[in-house]
């Protein structure tokens, strides 16, 4: 079997996916028409052509603007259903999906609008495709900690549907330490903890995520190699990194996929996984990320199998379910 068929056919889990970053230009266009929202683009092609980023912030500006077309429960259902249908095509059998409540509550669209839409699509994907999915509620780190506390309390009616709490958005200037108290509260409520760290930010942000937020996983973390002691800790504790290759390329964290350090991290004994982050903005869903790595780096069938096994090991699935996949 060719490597690309193995990539397509092997069962996988996805652990780093922003649902708002799976909005296709076609759906953005359709919803803009539906709600009479004026977009700064004249066609679907123009939307696609605008996706050239210099850094994380230049992407986030378009990503938050794009999410403005999501208005009613049906929109959130459609967004989630389109992503989960894509998972079915790609043999993603389990997915842990981040959503940014503040991107919507800041526009007066509440949990009572987006949560029922998300949950209905997730139930349907379980019924029709057998896909299991968990939700990760992410706080926007460019906003104050008080806004994260408010979001945590607004989410209360939905706690039983949320597995983990995360931290995303503009990394530089917003270290994990800014959110130490709200993550302590989330932990005490029983949530798993994840945080973006070491994407654009330095290795010290990864340290903070581990020591101050007590994370179960690090999102990205590719800058960990700048610190030998940190590498040793990540190896010893097997703290998973959810790496997103096409994201790193598109946001200029690397200049060329040949420079990606994922194989080095694997060879150094770290628990790394492959993920798509914001697939419709970064030019590929999960299997495209595997293919992009395989085309540029020294990756054989064993490496692909290890990365797929790591995706289950690093998930929040119950231990017995994890074992059935690895
Ligand atoms: C994100 Cl790639 C990335 N980094 C930080 N925050 C984000 N939110 C959506 N995508
Ligand atoms: Zn991300």
TrEMBL record:
Binding site for Zn(2+): 16, 18, 196, 277
Catalytic residue list: 199 (proton donor)
Keyword Endoplasmic reticulum: no
Pfam families: A_deaminase
GO molecular function: adenine deaminase activity; zinc ion binding
Site entry: Important for catalytic activity: 220
Top-level division of the source organism's lineage: Bacteria
Physiological role: Catalyzes the hydrolytic deamination of adenine to hypoxanthine. Plays an important role in the purine salvage pathway and in nitrogen catabolism.
PANTHER family, per the entry: ADENINE DEAMINASE
NCBIfam families: aden_deam (TIGR01430), PRK09358.1-6 (NF006850)
Official protein name in the record: Adenine deaminase
Organism: Alteromonas mediterranea (strain DSM 17117 / CIP 110805 / LMG 28347 / Deep ecotype)
